[in-house]
Amino acid sequence: MPKVARIVRGFTAMAAGLMLLGCAALEEGAAQGSARPDVVGSRKVIALVPDAQSAAQMRKAAQSTGYQQLDVTRLDGLDLTMLTYRMPDGVTGPQAITALEAAVPTSTVGINHAYRLQQQSAAAQALDYADTMMRWSEGGCRARVPIGVIDTAIDRTSPGLAGAQVVTKSFFDGPSADVTHGTDVATVLADPDRLNGVRIYGANVFGKPEAADLVAGADALVRALDWLADENVRLVNLALAGPYNKLLNLAVERAAARGLILVAAVGNDGPNVDPLYPAGFEQVIAVTAVDVDSRIYRNAVRGPHVDVAAPGVDVLVPTAGRMRFVTGTSIATPFVTARLAADPAIVAARDVSEVRKRLAQTSEELGPAGRDPMFGFGLALAKDICGE
């Protein structure tokens, strides 16, 4: 039975997906006039330091000026130490950053910016067009590297993950948020029509929110990258977006230096905003979304950082025993990650610049010749990559 026919027969309901939008890029510091909180823990400040001497200097400087130490974590995968403090009353984020970096010049200090998932519900307009559009080989390809997924928790019992090995770890205290988004992403990666024998390392960075807004802190993202680097996971999917953050910037640089290839959603805040992160970092492959007719997703962020496009509008995903249509740059991102995981040329790539070169050579132009701010290099194709 053809795949679309199987899906239509199995289709029982279409439920609303997560409507989790990204926030606009900000300078370091608290958001001004924002309708949503752009930080996790408004009185929290975080320092990353490179060695024991710097850590000792930071402890001394913080203690002498009234900062309360909340946590110290050694990040062996990134070769850093993270120190978390509560700021004294009356001290702002920018003031804390300036003072602590001045006291310890080797440190990188920042506030705990919030990052949001980039997926939402969608009306049904097409059925399972993604594999045909990307020209996946029949029967899929062998996954050549393990894949890290920095997202919500993953439901390892989901039928869509029956053929995958899934290892999970959480990076926050307390109960976990809903597993739907992370399970959607993992299901796209583990679909045997795309990848066979995939091993997924699920880094859960989303705790259960006190309010409706679901966010992950920059500190959780840094810890997750450290874990994946320590586990030698080469390829990492990040279907989330938020403002620029110095702590995350340093962690991304360290991860890239270790050989990790990071693939991230450009975000759903619309075409007229500045780049969101981590997609906005030079060391990250930035993924946008298109529909069945190769038209850009109307809410996708645009800019010179966009690398490549993938199906991300009305994508049919089987989760929790039902079929759902989801839309957003979140769901486009794992299609690109899966394509990279199947490509033997990516295994040999020394850094992200070689990955970009490979995508430029193998993607289908959708806009002006060359890289453009709407589609990047064009539609990512999986044609003929399995047997190379």
Task: Provide a descriptive summary of the structure in words.
The chain has 388 residues and is of the alpha/beta class. The protein folds into two domains: 3-23 and 116-362, 3-Layer(aba) Sandwich (Rossmann fold), CATH 3.40.50.200; 44-111, ACT domain (Alpha-Beta Plaits), CATH 3.30.70.260. The protein contains ten helices and 19 strands. It has helices at residues 3-10, 52-64, 93-103, 130-134, 180-190, 218-230, 246-257, 329-341, 344-348, 352-362; strands spanning 44-49, 68-75, 80-86, 108-111, 114-117, 120-121, 141-142, 147-151, 165-170, 195-196, 199-204, 216-217, 235-238, 240-241, 261-265, 284-290, 308-311, 315-319, 322-327. The strands form five sheets. The protein has a seven-stranded parallel beta sheet, with helices on both faces. It has a four-stranded antiparallel beta sheet with strand order 2-3-1-4, sandwiched between helices. Strands 12-5-14 form a three-stranded antiparallel beta sheet. The two termini are 29 Å apart. Residues 1-35 and 122-127 have low confidence and may be disordered.
Please give the structural blueprint:
Blueprint: H1 3-10, E1 44-49, H2 52-64, E2 68-75, E3 80-86, H3 93-103, E4 108-111, E5 114-117, E6 120-121, H4 130-134, E7 141-142, E8 147-151, E9 165-170, H5 180-190, E10 195-196, E11 199-204, E12 216-217, H6 218-230, E13 235-238, E14 240-241, H7 246-257, E15 261-265, E16 284-290, E17 308-311, E18 315-319, E19 322-327, H8 329-341, H9 344-348, H10 352-362
Parallel strand pairs: 7-10, 8-11, 8-13, 9-11, 13-15, 15-16, 16-17
Antiparallel strand pairs: 1-3, 1-4, 2-3, 5-12, 5-14, 6-19, 18-19
Helix pairs in contact: 5-8, 6-7
